[in-house]
Specification:
This protein is of the alpha/beta class. It contains 7 helices and 8 strands; from the N terminus they run αααββαββαβααβββ.
Length: 212
């Protein structure tokens, strides 16, 4: 798959982006902390190099690109080289699941969300960090993505689409936060985190697996 090949080849360059854009990275972590549960067994799907799992105290990840997985392992993450659409875990295994800029690279996002729901415990939460295609800077990202080695093959979705998927799968208790309100190149401080969506480039959604 094209996406995996890129991340195999450029894993080190991808990882260095977070150091080069430290204020953006810290802003995203701040937004994610708003909705990450303080305790419980967590899993990150699309763990990449472990840049989010490590500071958010998540010890298990899924990542199909071996080069990325190897870097995450150096950060103390137990990584399974598998795909989001077919998770190697039993039903009801995790208290919460994190996916950060993963949805846009998936072949079948709905199937990945079904799998996340399957391995979540009852009342567990899925937390999705994503680029909002309909935000002002998200629209600019879509225009520029062909020039990006990482995002060239990505499909950016509007928040409304992801919310619809979650509701169709029976998730409830939805909360949404947003951050990154300026061009990434212009950011010179940690961005605020606000409720809702529509303004910020980076949006965090939390939804709960509702017991029937």
């Amino acid at each position: 798959m094209k996406n995996i090949q890129i991340f195999e080849k450029l894993a080190k360059e991808y990882d260095e982006w977070f150091d080069e854009n430290e204020l953006v990275y810290k802003s995203e972590i701040l937004a994610l902390r708003k909705l990450i549960p303080k305790k419980g067994k967590g899993l990150e799907i699309g763990v990449g190099t472990g840049r989010f799992a490590a500071p958010l105290n998540i010890h298990i990840g899924v990542e199909p690109a071996k080069a990325m997985a190897d870097i995450a392992r150096k950060r103390g993450i137990e990584v399974y080289e598998a795909r989001a659409e077919k998770l190697p875990f039993n039903n009801n295994s995790f208290d919460f699941i994190l996916m950060v800029t993963t949805i846009c690279f998936l072949q079948d996002p709905m199937q990945a969300l079904r799998e996340a729901k399957r391995v979540l415990k009852s009342e567990g939460h899925i937390i999705i960090g994503m680029i909002d295609a309909n935000s002002p800077h998200g629209r600019m990202y879509k225009l520029k993505k062909k020039k990006s080695r990482f995002y060239k093959n990505a499909n950016f979705y509007p928040v409304n689409q992801v919310l619809k998927w979650l509701k169709n799968l029976g998730f409830g208790g939805i909360q949404v936060y947003q951050t990154i309100f300026r061009n990434i190149e212009e950011i010179n401080d940690i961005q605020e985190v606000k409720e809702g969506y529509g303004e910020g480039l980076f949006v965090v959604i939390s939804a709960q697996k509702v017991s029937i």
